[in-house]
């Protein structure tokens, strides 16, 4: 199974889910070079930083990954469980391109991740007990989500018809789901938003989609599809595998490469609600420095000041954060590129810290993680145990431990726990 993820934390989330399903999983960052061999594994996740790039660029990256994957049994497209995107891209165009490339009848669209409180009902995406548009995603700095109706949202991103697979059909099981998908495909529908409010719903959708539809969505459906691939038929997502061997005789996923027992540096760029609470907890627990875009109009000076602070706190744990609630983000003096400048600044701090000996980095936010991983030149990692659901430790071949945290994931003490040795 091959999975293309549209950001780096999304990649770690999907990889954790596939690993949990019992698949030996490798996570790669960035577009693979043509001719580069596929890693020996049951599932490979390729994370590309395309969530916020122009649609044509995202399509090119996804197609390059698809070509590289070759004849995998299933190709999965992972995007955010909160459907992070704008009307100008990228989920619709990438799904359309992957449909053309795979020849599948239609795409199933299901960001639901019940374990994280993301559910889809009648095509509407909920975050816990609120509609997406009433959740904190309304104020996301890059992809504010103000419409919860995914059929409507996706219809603005693709010229093709978008349909709905209702929960009552999903609850009738995989055969009923498959029949409905076939009917919709025959009617010319090319994307089907699937309701799912529980892991068992994802299992039914995954089983019905296998071999027929292109599956797209969050880590929940990726894990369900992974389990269906692993066992030949779907079983409840998250169910423990009992056999000592994985699929096709593969060994069980290797045990966790443990993060090194030295305190870490936290770099937080996410402004999501969960991150803001985690940053507040970390500020209480150890020294921290706020990267304040209102403090200067000069990116070099922003970095120089933060760098001086970091060098004065070499032992860790320590945190540099840009994260701020919407009400505090208006006063930037860095201009329209504020978000990218903050990402680059945090990435430069990561490079400095690693050069100075830091072996444990905790990064909050998908775009921020992408910038950090790219600046460090990390291309592939082994995926270890999860610090919290969907947030696995990733360890490079030379022993650098990275915790790349999706903005809205993790308990309030996640940064405190994971930065400590
Ligand atoms: N104070 C700030 N003002 C403006 N933009 C900011 C500020 N702090 C952070 N940002 C930008 O907000 C963006 C946050 O996106 P990022 O993907 O890192 O987090 P996220 O969306 O919460 O995480 P995920 O994608 O994992 O859900 C980054 O581009 C970051 O540079
Ligand atoms: O699906 C999610 O919510 C995360 O994996 C993610 O994509 C955050 O960027």
Report on this structure.
The chain has two domains: about 1-230, Rossmann fold, CATH 3.40.50.10840; about 265-420, Molybdenum Cofactor Biosythetic Enzyme, Chain A (3-Layer(aba) Sandwich). It is about 35% helix and about 20% strand. It contains 13 helices and 18 strands. It has helices spanning about 10-20, 55-70, 90-100, 150-155, 165-170, 175-185, 200-210, 220-230, 275-285, 300-310, 340-355, 365-375, 415-420, and strands at about 1-5, 25-30, 45, 75-80, 105-110, 120, 125, 130, 160-165, 190-195, 215, 265-270, 290, 320, 360-365, 380-390, 390-395, 400-405. Strands 9-10-5-11-4-1-3-2-16-17-18-15-12-14-13 form a 15-stranded mixed sheet, sandwiched between helices. A three-stranded antiparallel sheet has the order 6-7-8, with no helix packed on it. It starts with a strand and ends with a helix. Mean pLDDT is about 90; it is low at about 235-255. The structure holds adenosine-5'-triphosphate (ATP) and the ligand O=C(O)[C@@H](O)C(=O)CO. The ligand O=C(O)[C@@H](O)C(=O)CO binds near residues 82, 406 and 407. Belongs to the four-carbon acid sugar kinase family. It comes from Glycomyces mayteni. Keywords: ATP-binding, Carbohydrate metabolism, Kinase, Nucleotide-binding, Transferase.
**What name goes with the CATH superfamily of the largest domain?**
Putative sugar-binding, N-terminal domain
Mean pLDDT: 91
Shape: globular
Task: Supply the number of helical segments.
Answer: 13
Which fold name corresponds to the CATH topology of the largest domain? Rossmann fold
| Terminal Cα span | 35 Å
Specify the CATH architecture of the largest domain.
3-Layer(aba) Sandwich
**Unreliable segments of 5+ consecutive residues:** 234-253
Specify Rg, calculated over alpha carbons.
21 Å
Bound molecules: adenosine-5'-triphosphate, ligand LCNOYBR7
Q: Name the helicity range.
A: 25-40%
Count of folded domains = 2
Largest sheet: 15 strands, mixed
């Amino acid at each position: 199974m091959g999975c293309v993820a549209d950001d780096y934390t999304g990649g770690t989330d999907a990889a954790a889910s596939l690993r949990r399903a019992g698949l030996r999983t490798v996570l790669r960052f960035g577009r693979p070079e043509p001719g580069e061999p596929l890693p020996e594994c049951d599932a490979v996740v390729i994370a590309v930083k395309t969530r916020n790039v122009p649609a044509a660029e995202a399509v090119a990256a996804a197609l390059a990954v698809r070509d590289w994957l070759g004849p995998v049994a299933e190709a999965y497209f992972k995007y955010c469980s909160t459907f992070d995107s704008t009307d100008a891209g990228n989920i619709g165009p990438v799904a359309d391109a992957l449909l053309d490339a795979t020849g599948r009848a239609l795409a199933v669209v299901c960001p639901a991740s019940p374990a994280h409180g993301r559910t889809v009902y009648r095509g509407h995406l909920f975050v816990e007990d609120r509609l997406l548009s009433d959740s904190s995603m309304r104020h996301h700095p890059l992809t504010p989500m103000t419409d919860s109706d995914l059929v409507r949202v996706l219809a603005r991103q693709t010229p093709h018809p978008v349909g709905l697979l209702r929960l009552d059909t999903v609850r009738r099981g995989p055969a009923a789901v498959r029949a409905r998908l076939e009917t919709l495909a025959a009617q010319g529908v090319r994307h089907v938003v699937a309701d799912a409010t529980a892991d068992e719903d994802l299992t039914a959708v995954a089983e019905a989609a296998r071999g027929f539809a292109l599956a797209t969505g969050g880590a929940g459906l990726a894990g369900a599809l992974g389990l269906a691939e692993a066992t030949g038929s779907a079983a409840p997502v998250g169910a423990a595998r009992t056999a000592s061997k994985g699929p096709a005789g593969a060994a069980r996923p290797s045990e966790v490469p443990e993060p090194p027992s030295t305190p870490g540096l936290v770099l937080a760029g996410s402004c999501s609600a969960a991150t803001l609470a985690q940053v507040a907890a970390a500020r209480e627990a150890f020294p921290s420095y706020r990267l304040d875009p209102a403090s200067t109009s000069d990116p070099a000076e922003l970095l120089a000041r933060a760098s001086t602070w970091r060098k004065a706190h070499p032992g860790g744990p320590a945190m540099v954060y840009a994260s701020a609630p919407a009400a505090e983000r208006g006063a930037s003096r860095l201009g329209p590129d504020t978000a990218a400048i903050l990402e680059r600044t945090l990435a430069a701090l990561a490079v400095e810290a690693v050069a100075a000996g830091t072996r444990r980095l905790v990064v909050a936010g998908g775009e921020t993680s992408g910038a950090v991983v790219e600046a460090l030149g990390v291309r592939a990692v082994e995926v270890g145990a999860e610090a919290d659901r969907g947030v696995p430790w990733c360890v490079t071949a030379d022993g650098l431990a990275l915790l790349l945290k999706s903005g809205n994931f993790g308990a309030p003490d996640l940064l405190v726990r994971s930065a400590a040795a």
